[in-house]
Amino acid sequence: MLYPSIDALLERIDSKYSLVSVAAKRARMMQQNKDERLPKYVSHKFVGKALEEIYSGDLTYRVVRKADAPAGNQ
Question: What single string gives the DSSP state of each residue in 22-71?
Answer without folding.
Answer: HHHHHHHHHHHH----SS--S-SSHHHHHHHHHHHTS----PPPTTTS-G
